[in-house]
Amino acid sequence: MCGIVGAVAQRNIVPVLIEGLRRLEYRGYDSCGVAVLAGGEPRRARSVARVADLDEQVRETHLEGFTGIAHTRWATHGAPVTNNAHPIFSRNALALVHNGIIENYESLREMLRGKGYEFVSQTDTEVIAHLIHSLYRGDLFVAVREAVQQLHGAYAIAVEHKDQPNTVVGARQGSPLVVGLGQGENFLASDALALAGSTEHFIFLEEGDVCELTLERVRVADRDGRDVEREVRTVAAYGGAVELGPYRHFMQKEIFEQPRAISDTIPQADSFDASLFGDAAARAFGEIDNLLILACGTSYYSGLTAKYWLESIAKIPTQVEIASEYRYRDSVPNPKSLVVVISQSGETADTLAALKHAQSLGHRHTLSVCNVGTSAMVRLTELSFLTHAGREIGVASTKAFTTQLVALFVLAATLGKLRGHVDASLEAQYVRQLRHLPAALNSVLALEPQIIAWSEDFSRKENALFLGRGLHYPIALEGALKLKEISYIHAEAYPAGELKHGPLALVTEAMPVVTVAPNDALLEKLKSNMQEVRARGGELYVFADSDTRIVSEEGLHVIRMPEHYGVLSPILHVVPLQLLAYHTACSRGTDVDKPRNLAKSVTVE
Ligand code: M6R
User: Fold this and answer.
1) Which positions fall inside the SIS domain (predicted)?
2) Ligand 1 close to Cβ of residue 372 (< 6 A)
């Protein structure tokens, strides 16, 4: 999964391409590169550092041109080294950038080797470049159309050829690609955000489309080669730099933005109405008798938390499944299911594919809980609820998670009300609790200095266990994911009752055990599980509600949460875990906002 940008213009286009790459770094940052046509063979600059380094290179080498393509890479085939960085050349005549995975690249490579093409990278992408080159007879559009017929897998590509200096050709199948329409200039990008400031007019290409951009014209052909008119949509994407303010990293800033993000996400009305989810929601909610939630990573954990709410508040059977598993297994479709997809980006390939799979099985009612209103996921679902977290830049998701929890709680309360399980007084109580959340979160954020003190200990560990029970088990999972993702400490989460069935064998004096201890019905059970850890010498780090009577002693460290928060407690208890991961990562000196091997948006499977 990578980001691509391309442009044909009558001005030096390199600064626009570089700025586009900066905005697409959320799609991967293993390497980046740009290639321009400026009379004669294409010229390129590539870097295995960040876009800032590429920018320096292009300035030093005066790389300029009116036609260009650029790429930011998340490595799939081939290590993140310069040789594998895009743009990839074919015989110094053609340059190409690619987002996706070509599944039949081995057979294509053999075929192209037979034609005398030499391969200099380990990428699957190089076959596309040579394939198009081998088919080129003076018309790049035609060559690309012929080439894509032979590709199996996912791709969004942008290509330029030295013999057509004012042309960029693009194609997509399985990976996103938008055309940006300018005045006397035209653009291509993986995401409209990359072109903010250059245009607000976009064509969202459809599966199988091939397009040709020249200065005055954009031509689109569908998968059958027929010229087609695609709808032009106006999208005012905000591309301005997001300021870091007083924070060290975007992750820290985003953790502290949670009170605001949550207050923006809580519906303004004092009642839970189906219309919060779209015009068709009242009818759809009346036709369902169960939920199927599909998501990945942190969004999956918000789904797991929601299952507890949906089954206890709305009494509606709920199944939660990892999207990448659901899409490939035989499942039994149920026309009375509401399929709920949860995603910060709305572009996660596995979740999108799972949604399409569910639809292909006949599921009519679909709902997205998403942070990006223009995303493919929102466009594909019947109903939607937008979280208003604002742009999340840190790869580790924080405010997107807590706002998803708010959205899903609202869903549970709404379905509970419709199904007769939430009466007016309970509804008023839920509304009050939601409204109090931002203030409660501010009190939790004030625990930061105590958490910093713990993070010093954690930064010297290589393993950690996280425990939770019931509604807070998914919160333990999320805490462990945060820690491993940004501090590179191996962390596992378990429902505390499961400890004795295996993981207890891992517990020694060297094993910190983080415990989420709200004052709920399972507290006494959880205390017994904590004793099991202490008896084996394990060091406990407990986030306990104020009224739990868990006190610090030898081997037992306690941070007291400011208040007990009932049914919405997961939204508060996850915040200290975010801060613990963040400060541990800072102590270890990792690249917190861009942890190794990851990307913000996972747009390949
Ligand atoms: O954009 P999405 O919410 O669909 O992304 C899903 C996961 O890739 C994402 O939550 C990932 O697990 C985060 N980096 C975790 O912090």
Assistant:
1) 281-421, 454-595
2) no
